[in-house]
Design brief:
single chain, 422 residues, Growth Hormone, Chain: A, 19 helices, 81% helix
């Protein structure tokens, strides 16, 4: 692909971006709809809501490491297409079962597990593919635009989800997510850029050996290791928050489905700014400084939901604080992803993505179940406050990492890696 001109004029990049935008749009709808199916339609308890969230994250524990090693052996685009097709079919069973009157919590758990397993195989392929498609010179720009996909999807997806839930009920609204996966698969299939098969050595190591190599690389890396530890800490707390927040604002704060979708969705507007400023910020201040600043800002933006009361004022406070949180999150994610990719050899990219995700998400099912159990004792509000306070551990990890103590050296490594690849 040519490196000249805007990426928005590059057909294959736009197809990749459009595929992820479409599927993320559907994901935002089901982010609202699935917990409400469990909570409102099937009358799930807080513990059962925690189990649903855990089911959506559990496959990361048992499938991420093999998926990463296999990703380094396979072409990336076919993996992404198959993952989208299977996910779309699985999500489509929810509205069908609802219409037939046979929907159960067991089915929701099964659908969550299938879709999450597909995502585990999709993620290392998707995170690696932009480097193949764009090259290192435009990687930061491409990652920033792809990360802003979450924003575009959130701005439209959650308000649309609120409307669909209000009109058709949460179970039938899940159909939009099923269709979005199928459209995303079609967009990926239309990409023309050739993708070479990964080189296969005559004496290729066994899968287990490749997995172990990926683990050692990530854990022992002086920059990537602390980054992953920080993200693991934050992800544990986010799992606890996400297990309860939708049902909390509906059940205890009295928000309507439409109001919930609007507040969650409008807050995503901050990500439009994030997609535009992530690249310039790293060019001016360097990746280490940007990552440190984002890590310290995140806890300040994440705790409002457990502190506000019912009504419009609480909705405005949550909307503003979450807008700032989305800006910080997307700047951090696009920057850390680009830094990790630039510091990692090409043959390790799939294992880098999968191993980092496995280590980051390893405790999230525990966080989700713990939040459900804790809510049964101290209530949803108290649990949300506890998990928001837990976010403060993240900045401590970053402060003592080489991102602060060896900033200039890391910036030099990034310049060297970019020049060598170019």
């Amino acid at each position: 692909m040519s490196r000249a001109g805007s990426l928005w004029r590059q057909r294959d990049f736009v197809l990749l971006w459009g595929s992820q935008t479409t599927s993320s749009l559907g994901n935002e709808i089901s982010y609202l709809a699935l917990p409400l199916v469990a909570g409102l339609v099937l009358d799930a308890s807080p513990v059962e809501l925690g189990l649903l969230t855990a089911a959506r994250r559990l496959p990361v524990l048992f499938a991420s490491l093999p998926a990463g090693a296999l990703s380094d052996r396979w072409r990336k685009r076919p993996v992404m297409i198959v993952a989208f097709l299977v996910s779309g079919c699985a999500m489509g069973t929810v509205p069908l079962a609802a219409v037939a009157g046979g929907l159960t919590l067991g089915q929701l758990y099964a659908v969550a597990l299938v879709v999450a397993t597909c995502e585990v195989f999709f993620t290392p392929a998707y995170q690696t593919y932009p480097l193949t498609l764009l090259g290192p010179e435009r990687l930061m720009e491409g990652n920033a635009k792809l990360t802003s996909t979450v924003t575009v999807a959130g701005m439209a997806g959650q308000p649309i989800g609120g409307v669909l839930i209000s009109l058709f009920g949460p179970a039938k609204a899940v159909l939009a997510d099923a269709l979005s996966y199928l459209v995303g698969a079609l967009a990926l299939a239309l990409i023309r850029s050739p993708e070479a098969r990964p080189e296969r050595k005559e004496l290729a190591p066994r899968l287990r050996e490749q997995i172990a190599e990926g683990l050692r690389y990530v854990v022992r890396h002086r920059v990537i290791g602390p980054l992953v530890l920080y993200m693991a800490t934050v992800s544990f707390c986010i799992a606890g928050l996400s297990a309860l927040e939708v049902n909390y604002v509906v059940r205890e704060l009295g928000w309507s489905g439409l109001a919930t979708g609007l507040v969650f969705g409008v807050s995503m507007a901050g990500g439009l700014a994030a997609g535009a400023v992530a690249g310039p910020l790293t060019e001016r201040y360097g990746m280490p400084r940007v990552l440190l600043g984002a890590a310290f800002a995140y806890p300040l933006c994440s705790g409002s939901i457990g502190l506000v009361g019912p009504g419009l004022a609480g909705q405005l406070v949550v909307g503003v604080s979450w807008t700032l949180m989305i800006i910080v999150t997307l700047v951090f994610q696009s920057t850390q992803r680009s830094l990790r990719q630039l510091l990692t050899p090409k043959e390790m990219q799939g294992r880098l993505a999968a191993t980092s995700r496995w280590l980051t998400w390893a405790a999230t099912p525990v966080g989700a179940v713990l939040a459900g159990a804790l809510a049964g004792g101290i209530g949803m509000r108290g649990t949300l406050v506890v998990f928001s306070a837990g976010m403060l551990a993240g900045p401590v990890v970053m402060w003592f990492s080489p991102l602060r103590t060896s900033r200039r050296e890391i910036e030099g490594d990034v310049r060297t890696a970019t020049a060598a690849a170019g």
